[in-house]
Design brief:
- It is a single chain.
- The strands form 2 sheets. This protein has an 8-stranded antiparallel barrel with strand order 1-2-3-4-5-6-7-8, surrounded by 4 helices. It has a two-stranded antiparallel sheet with strand order 9-10.
- Helices cover 30% and strands 32% of the residues.
- With 284 residues, the protein is α+β, with helices and mostly antiparallel strands.
- It comes from Escallonia herrerae.
- It is found in: Plastid.
Length: 284
């Protein structure tokens, strides 16, 4: 070990290594996923995650819809949403519902090459009683949302913040301004695929059709209509509105073999990771 530590490679000058664009993309995605796994909802963490999502969108390797045709189909697990806290908070819920995994399954429709079927699957557990049981055992249920999307080319515009828009989009605007300011420096100029920061970026535009929603609850709550209504309301409170109403998803801004970023109509970004074995890409 002592001989190894005295090796010139370790004791010599720090050689500067220019990473490739693929390595930069991989590191951005890995860092974002690592932050989400910490399950911390502090303001600094949320700003940092929004910052990484913006960077990923800037260096998106597959901006044209033709690249999404092979990468989009699959089963994606929702990791994070920049517009809403996921899971329980300090509030007192009307129904004690624990959200499990939230998946978005995308499959190609047989009629058209650019039409896809989107299925949002939300698994949850309803805890019966006034107190939270220690073992968290309750009544299992699922909520499923189905819709068809047509994939076309689109662009995402970087607009100036308008005071009339309110404070709901201020965090997203601040993240965009932070990214643009950081990418303007000399450090990022060498890795960006364009000389000047664009006012818009190419995206995969998603046009939705009718949305179908269905829910199932196990016994003894399967026949309790009032409890089912409270459960639906609580599920909608805990998950992003884009997963309950798929028509709120307007475009895709980043995709590779392991990560997916979709944007909602309110500007929030949803970060997904692939959660199944794809024959064309291998296990990811």
């Amino acid at each position: 070990c002592l001989d190894a530590l005295k090796h010139p490679f370790l004791c010599g000058p720090r050689w500067r290594i220019d990473p490739s664009m693929d390595i930069i993309r991989w590191n951005l995605g890995s860092t974002a996923v690592r932050i989400t796994e910490e399950y911390i909802y502090g303001q600094q963490q949320r700003i940092r995650l929004a910052h990484f999502v913006e960077l990923m969108e800037m260096v998106n390797p597959h901006s044209k819809p033709k690249n999404w045709l092979s990468l989009l189909p699959g089963r994606w697990r929702l990791l994070y949403c920049t517009g809403r806290h996921l899971g329980l908070t300090l509030r007192q819920p009307s129904a004690r519902v624990l959200i499990g995994d939230v998946h978005l399954t995308v499959s190609r429709a047989s009629k058209s090459r650019t039409t896809f079927s989107f299925t949002s699957g939300i698994g949850f557990t309803v805890l019966i009683g006034q107190e939270w049981p220690h073992d968290k055992i309750g009544v299992a249920g699922t909520l499923q949302v189905n819709s068809f999307f047509r994939l076309t080319a689109g662009r995402r515009l970087y607009l100036k913040e308008d005071k009339a828009m309110g404070e709901s989009l201020s965090s997203a605007r601040n993240a965009q301004d932070s990214v643009i300011e950081k990418l303007s420096g000399k450090k990022w100029r060498k890795v960006l695929p364009f000389k000047e920061l664009p006012s818009s970026l190419q995206v995969a535009k998603l046009i939705s059709s009718d949305v179908e929603v269905s829910m199932s609850l196990n016994e003894p709550l399967s026949r309790d209509v009032k409890t089912a209504q409270n459960v639906v309301q609580e599920v909608r409170t805990q998950i992003p509105p884009e997963m309950f109403d798929l028509s709120n998803i307007v475009c895709g801004t980043y995709v590779d073999s392991r990560l997916l970023v979709l944007r909602g109509v309110n500007g929030s970004a949803l970060l997904f990771t692939r959660s199944f074995v794809n024959e064309s890409h291998g296990k990811v």
